[in-house]
């Protein structure tokens, strides 16, 4: 009987030793490294903070024909900051910015700093904003528009890929290929050109921050304008 009792005690003691060793091993496990540019989220876990890396949304590649007859792909501009501007020259919200050269000035200012600016029209044939190549080039000349290229998206494939809802609708892609801005050109939803000077220009703010290597003050908001005239 004494032998059986001693054996039971030995088994219990051995189990306890194993549990202590296992617990100690878990507590001493190395913490996985977190990159210095990772975003953080605080999680209430016994008053500890957990670092969670958030991957940026990468911009989808596409290929479209330009009004100049050339083919353009987003991948052609790897390593560049790229602006996508959804446009419809007959939309009053677009006219607001082109009539006083606001959009053209932005195009000129930032393309001179190495930014790629792609104006994209997703109006289907027969819908407002869709023009022949000849008319597009004439309209651009009259407006003194100076994007890197004016791209024609008759099928609406690229517009729907990006979720472009209005004209204008602005997107900015950084040099790493991440979509870092999606939204309105500025903070005042109107067709009055007088409001431009009073508005916060989100696109200019975002580009200035990117070029200076700083965090964007605004990265996402609701665009305003005419609905994109999809097929």
Provide keyphrases for this structure.
seven-stranded mixed β-sheet; two-stranded antiparallel ribbon; Glutaredoxin; disordered N terminus; alpha+beta; 231 residues
Fold and architecture overview:
- Helix content is 30%, strand content 15%.
- Strand 7 (170-173) and strand 8 (179-183) form a beta hairpin.
- The protein has one domain (63-227): Glutaredoxin (3-Layer(aba) Sandwich).
- It has helices at 2-27, 92-98, 102-111, 133-143, 157-162, 202-211; strands at residues 63-66, 71-73, 82-86, 116-121, 149-152, 166-167, 170-173, 179-183, 226-227.
- The strands form two sheets. The protein has a seven-stranded mixed β-sheet, with helices on one face. Strands 6-9 form a two-stranded antiparallel sheet.
- With 231 residues, it is α+β, with helices and mostly antiparallel strands.
- Residues 1-13 and 15-54 have low confidence and may be disordered.
- It is globular.
Give the ordered list of helices and strands: HEEEHHEHEHEEEHE
Find the count of extended strands (DSSP E, 2+ residues): 9
Total domains = 1
**Known CATH architecture:** 3-Layer(aba) Sandwich
Summing up helix and strand content along with how strands pair, one would put the structural category as alpha+beta
Low-confidence segments, given as residue ranges, are 1-13, 15-54
Q: What do we call the CATH topology?
A: Glutaredoxin
Beta-strand percent range: 15-25%
CATH superfamily: Glutaredoxin
Tally of DSSP helical segments? 6
**Span from first to last CA?**
90 Å
Nearest-integer average pLDDT: 84
**In angstroms, what is the radius of gyration?**
28 Å
Strand order of the largest sheet: 2-1-5-4-3-7-8
Overall helicity: 25-40%
The CATH class is: Alpha Beta
Biggest sheet overview: 7 strands, mixed
The coarse overall form would be: globular
